Amino acid sequence: MDSSTLLGITTFTYLFSTVLYTIFYIFKMDKLGKVATWFTATALLIQTIAIGLRWWESYEMGIGRAPLTNMYESVVFFAWTIVALYLFIEWKFKLRIIGVFTVPFAFLAMAYASLSTDINKSITPLVPALQSNWLIAHVVTCFIGYAAFTVAAGLGIMYLIKNKNASSTSGLINSLPSLKVIDTITHNVMVFGFIWLTIGIITGAVWANSAWGRYWSWDPKETWSFITWAIYAITLHVRFTRGWQGPRIAWLAILGFISVIFTYYGVNFLLSGLHSYGSS
Amino acid sequence: MKSSNPFWNFFASVKLALFTLGCIAVTSIIGTLIPQKEPMQFYVNQYGSKVATYFQLLDFTDMYTSWWFLALLGLLSINLIVCSIDRFPITWKQITQDNLELPLERLEKFRLSASFNTQLSEQEVITTLPNMLAKAGWKIESRNRDGIHLFFGQKMPWSRIGVYLVHLSILIIFTGAVYGQLNGFRGSMMLPELQSSSTVFPFQSSSTINLGFTVKCERFEIEFYDNNMPKEYRSLLTVLEDDQVIVQKEIEVNTPLKYEGITFYQASYQPFNDFIFTIAESTNSPTIFTGEFQKEIKWLENNVSFGIINLESVRDQAVRLKIWFSDPTGEPSEFWIDAGEMIEFQRGDSVYFFSAKQRYATGLQVAKDPGVWIVYVGFLLMISGLYVAFFMSHKRLWLIIKNSGTKTQIEIRGSTNKNQAGFTTRFQDLATALENEL
Ligand code: HEM
User: Fold this and answer.
1) 3-class secondary structure, A178
2) Tell me, what CATH number does B135's domain have?
3) A238 near B CB under 8 A
4) pTM, full prediction
5) pLDDT higher for B68 or A63?
6) B94-104 burial string, b = 16+ CB within 10 Å, else e?
């Protein structure tokens, strides 16, 4: 079995995870929740093996490079990080319901990676500028940040749903965690993401400097990553210094996520920039 | 420390910071929508002359160095400086103050509290408590005052500096960027193989820069993958001063040559129409010739002539060359060789070593940025500052020991500047543990 097959399987396992979490949530089947968790953990393991296999395959092909350097591979890694982060949060806060709002993102990412005609799935060799360990550090750290912001946006949506129906007695609303708990986790996840995005931008700058002698050149990709960074910096400040909480932070988490998606996807496909690395 | 000067307060306010940061984020979108630094004609063709004029008026065609964008960055810096000066004294006090002197009413106000009684005498409590707290990682000081015995312990008071480190790091990065901009340059050089130059053409002006030393390209190579993608560009560079070889280094993309604060990056290349030949007779040292396709080249001292009469190219690279070779020992010979390969052959009594390859020019990006180390220091400081600001907290613990007749009363107060939830749990665990043990 090759890595593409295995990654294709992962797409369906994440879809199935999403279904399991949703059924668990809607029908309050606690036993199913455990199954969903174990199933998701297994899916993550399969994906981990697939990524490892892809790495090995690249050596077999005589190319030999980490599977992190084009659009397809970065989307796959993005999905991997979302699920890994979600499982960590579930374990840490004992809140399985968050899975309903985060695992679908991993499925969507995988589905996009597998089905889109925009992206090339083959293992291609690296042009000289991309042969750098700084690039690997850059991709890994950025995507940990992006995954955290995705989870934060999922939590933001959850918050807004609960908040809108605050007086509702419906079981579906009641079984969501309390507003305060969602707010706290959202904040923690955003802080986590902010640190990683910061490191991601910095390693990107160091890489650019080692390849072209310039750590910052305001190309569209850099600029959008800066805009995303600024949105989260503003979010942290309004919380720390102006006491913003709850719905406003939830909206900012969603706004930040939109900026992340634009940085990641929009710049490659909608703007005609120079930073076309990783777009094929 | 609220100043009464409204001017000062304006520049110290976080509102201004939010406004400025928001403006920088929103305006920087412009440069991602409108291509930057193109000639005016480009904008006229693309957007019409009227719009193009407005673009130029507002500096939208080179917005990241425009006065208004730089002004926003400057405003952010002033804001950071004033805000830090404004707040630092309070933080410093919180770090260094004598916490055993705080009035008891202040202690009452801390959110975390627990209290219990024990049968032990006050003296026994006072002797056992410090050890028990030390086990939990609290270094304890104590003092008798106002008829009570007060213990105090704290963890990581200096973590309050974290935010200042982050803010300072931004200023340091800006400083490095400005310093590099003022004292450095960026430009390019196109060096044909076997040629040298000491002149750089800067990107931003039409004048030239003299390096003060000479760079020579000894060799350029390009390697391809099987699917025709370039795999590596490589140049062997020599730095010469007064015709003396000072440094020699093979550079690739991502591994530049540095000399005297100036860095040479492999950026591009250009194939030429002529060829480089290396030829030697037996063990004599080789001689180098350059010459064009289908032109006869004469090696006079050995009475040899040679040339390329045919070639095979892949992409824009000549990969195989058909050589015509003649010397006084007989009929000229013709043979194919791979480009760059050194071959050995015999004619009469002579043994020749011979190679030929197409000539290239290597395209170098040349940069001098003496500010880059300042920027990197800022990067490190930012990451460490964020770590301190987000993951470390200043935790404080007070224990008030009172004698109430036959019993001893122990009151505990705690405070943290961050991660309330985490500290609350630990505070309660500690209180329970103390109660059980005493
Ligand atoms: C892009 C630039 C900035 C970054 C990355 C940044 C970063 C941070 C971070 C990470 C914190 C969190 C501190 C905590 O955990 O408590 C913080 C807090 C703060 N920042 Fe900034 N900051 C920036 C700009 C500014 C500016 C321009 C001001 C000027 C007023 C400012 C004022 C503050 C204040 C007052 C706090 C709260 C400090 C406290 O909790 O005691 N920041 N900043």
Assistant:
1) coil
2) 3.30.310.80
3) yes
4) 0.89
5) B68
6) eeeeebeebee
